[in-house]
Amino acid sequence: MAAVVPPAPATEALSPFETGPGTPAGRYLRSFWQPVKLSQDLREGQAQPIAVMGEKFTLYRGAGGKPVVTQSGCAHRQTLLSVGHVEGDSIRCMFHGWKFGSDGQCQEAPGQSPRLVERTRIRTYPACEAYGLIFVYFGEGEPPRFPDIEAFSKKHGKDMMSALVLDCGTYRRNCNYYVNVENALDLAHVPYTHRISSDPTITEVGFSPEVAFVRDITVERFDFGVRAIEVIESAPPTVSTVMLPNAMHLIVGQRDGYLEQVAWRVPIDDESHLSFQIAAMHTDEEGKIRYQEYQARKSELVAKYPSTELCAEQVLRGEKTLLDFADHPDLVNMEDHVAQMGMQFITDRGRENLAQSDKAVVQLRRMFMSRLADFVSGAPAESGW
After folding, report:
1. In angstroms, what is the C-alpha Rg of the chain?
2. In this predicted structure, what is the pLDDT of residue 2?
3. Which of 125, 235, 237, 360 could be 185's S-S partner, Cβ–Cβ 3.0 to 4.6 Å?
4. How far is it, in rounded angstroms, from Cα 177 to Cα 374?
């Protein structure tokens, strides 16, 4: 009788792109602090819905000022808590009035027994605020140490907390988050993708014309990620680092000094993401004044147009060109929107032709997938930065 050989056990397919609940990359990213909202966009007593990695949550700020993140729906009938009422540091469902504390414990359930109130709770997630952003930990167990951004900048940057201009911001991009993660190391795209925004004869603000050249890069690997550095002698180089799994640090020349930025690419779902950035402008007093004057006019300029994603979609459909948005304050992001939203390598994999200028991107993919495999095998998710 012939022996029956059982089939080999199925192996878990690893991919950086899919981040929904239970996916390898999704569990990996959930093991780190992720920004979800600008602090200024959440008022005291306000509740909002948020979507992160294919899941919905409720975010609110109680009377004590602390942000609270809970599951999206009430434990009773799953009505969205984001349409409920913030009372003190608690939130009350607008459907039947069940009330939950910031720790998730049910405090009131009108018409129900004390026993039901005692045993009912909703899930909450650790949240903190830093540098004008609200961060949340969506993983299991205790959250990791929060990254020391100030110390990282002092060691690897220009001491961004000492810059004359320090700001934070966010934007949405309708493509997979990992496209934008890799873009941080693709310095060869700048002269072409940002051809308009780096031309001072066309645009008022943007990159320095000095960065609009394709140069060779050196690639460095660290415990925390991969760095690309331009090979240039005549001026300070552009330096860009990806800190695994989805953060980046950038130093690049601007017309009034140097931009230093730390940013996170946070999936909304597998087809869109938010970027949250802390930005420092290393400039002089005159540059600071020009920056502030431009910021005062920014809202008026932005009001002329729809959102940057919609502008980019008009370009991709051939209805507009980027030159039609030359005075848009977010032209740099719009240029990246157009390039990245038009990429197809996720849905049509295997048709890329990576070249010499992509060597940092290749190193990042290898490191990301290696760390993801280690994580799936049980290794802890350590940021190292």
Report:
1. 23
2. 47
3. 360
4. 21
For residue 11, what are its two tokens?
């192996």
> Which residue from 242, 264, 267 is spatially nearest to 175, judged by alpha carbons?
267
The closest of 182, 184, 55, 194 to 125, measured between CA atoms, is 55
Report strand pairing: 90-92 vs 85-87: antiparallel
Distance separating alpha carbons of residues 275 and 340, to the nearest angstrom: 13
Q: 19: closest CA among 197, 265, 305, 236?
A: 265
Residue 197 and residue 176: Cα distance in Å, rounded? 24
Residue bearing tokens 């007093």: 285
**Half-sphere exposure of residue 169: CA atoms within 13 angstroms, side-chain side:** 11
Of residues 169, 133, 201, 191, the one with CA closest to residue 298: 169
Over the stretch 194-203, which tens digit does the pLDDT of each residue have? 999 999 999 9
Residue with the two structure tokens 């306000």: 46
Domains for the chain: give ranges and CATH numbers: 33-129 (2.102.10.10), 148-376 (3.90.380.10)
For residue 15 the two structure tokens come to 């991919």
Q: How far, CA to CA in Å, does 315 sit from each of 71, 72, 311?
A: 38, 35, 7
Pairing of strands 99-100, 47-52: unpaired
DSSP code for 8: P
Compute CA distances 52 → 37, 181, 199, whole Å: 11, 16, 36
Q: Nearest 5 degrees, angle CA 290-CA 291-CA 293?
A: 65
Beta strands in the chain (DSSP E): 33-38, 47-52, 55-61, 67-71, 85-87, 90-92, 99-100, 106-108, 124-125, 127-130, 133-137, 165-173, 217-222, 225-230, 239-243, 247-254, 257-269, 272-282
What is the rounded CA–CA span in Å between residue 66 and residue 128? 8
How far is residue 316's CA from residue 341's CA, in Å, rounded to a whole number?
8
Half-sphere exposure of 295 (CA within 13 A, CB side): 11
**pTM for this model (two decimals):** 0.93
